[in-house]
Amino acid sequence: MHRMSVTQKGQLVIPKELRDKHGIAPNSEVIVTEIGGHIAILPAPDAVRQGRGMVRFDRPVADLLKEGRTEEFQHDARLTRKRRKPASKSG
Question: Minimal CA–CA distance to 49: which of 28, 33, 65?
Fold first, then answer.
């Protein structure tokens, strides 16, 4: 158990031992709540870290992005060419 002081601003320092044990890194977020009449500080879930590795591809993501961007560029080029075609004169 750790006894801590609270500053005038309501701040306190979570002991390094507990931050390390519970994965609370600098600038990470925590959840402050009340449980059974006690204040509880819980590590906030990190969506990016939790999602890491959930999606697997058969090729590197950089290659997939490059391919997708190339296809998008080619599509845009086709649309631009269609817009540049001169209108036929009727007369």
Answer: 28
